[in-house]
Amino acid sequence: METTPLINGREYGWADIVVNVSASAIAGIKAIKYEEEQEKENIYGSGKNPVSRGYGRVKTTGSITLLSGTVFAMQANAPKNKLHNIAPFPIVVMYQPETGPIVKHTLKNCEFKKTTFDWKEGDMSKDVELELLISHIE
C-alpha cells in the first residue's frame, strides 16, 4: 500500500460511481449502501484471556435509493408489476475516477424486499429507498 501523500490528488466521489443493475446502467440512482459483517467471538479456555477466536457467518445487507420515475419504469417491466417478483440479479458498483485505479464491487444475487412510497404535499420529486437481500459481495 502506497503511503506517499498526493499533491493535488483526487479522492473517489459520487460523480465517479457507475451502478449497473442486471447489466443496465441506472441513471435515476440517488444512493447505494451495502455492508458486510462477519460473526466473530473470542473462545475461552484456561485462564481469563481468550485462547482462540471463532468465526461464523458473513451477513450482507444493503439498499438502493432511486428516483420514483426509475422505480415506476422498473415496476412496469417486473413480473406482475412487483419489484419483489424479479429473479435474483447482480448489482455492479464501479468507482471510475479520472485518475487512479478503478474499483469494482459486485453485489451478488440481489432481490428487492419491499417497495415503499411516501409522498407529501410540496414534493417535486421522490427518492424511493429499496431494501436489498444480498447473498455476498465480490
Q: How would you describe the overall organization of this protein?
A:
This protein is mostly beta strands and 138 residues long. Helices cover 7% and strands 49% of the residues. Strands 1, 2, 3, 4, 5, 6, 7 and 8 form an 8-stranded antiparallel beta sheet that branches. A hairpin with a 7-residue loop joins strand 5 (89-95) and strand 6. The two termini are 20 Å apart. The mean pLDDT is 90.
Quick tags:
eight-stranded antiparallel β-sheet, mainly beta, 1 helix
N-end to C-end Cα span: 20 Å
How many strand segments? Answer: 8
Unreliable parts: none
In percent, how helical is the residue content?
Answer: under 10%
Pattern of helices and strands: EEEEHEEEE
Beta-strand percent range: over 45%
What class would the helix/strand composition place it in? mainly beta
What is the residue-averaged pLDDT?
90
Major beta sheet, specifics? Answer: 8 strands, antiparallel
Give me the number of helical elements.
Answer: 1
Q: What characteristic shape results from the CA principal axes?
A: extended
What is the rounded Rg? Answer: 20 Å
SSE layout:
Blueprint: E1 17-21, E2 24-25, E3 29-44, E4 50-67, H1 68-77, E5 89-95, E6 103-112, E7 127-133, E8 136-137
Short characterization:
This protein has 138 residues and is mainly beta.
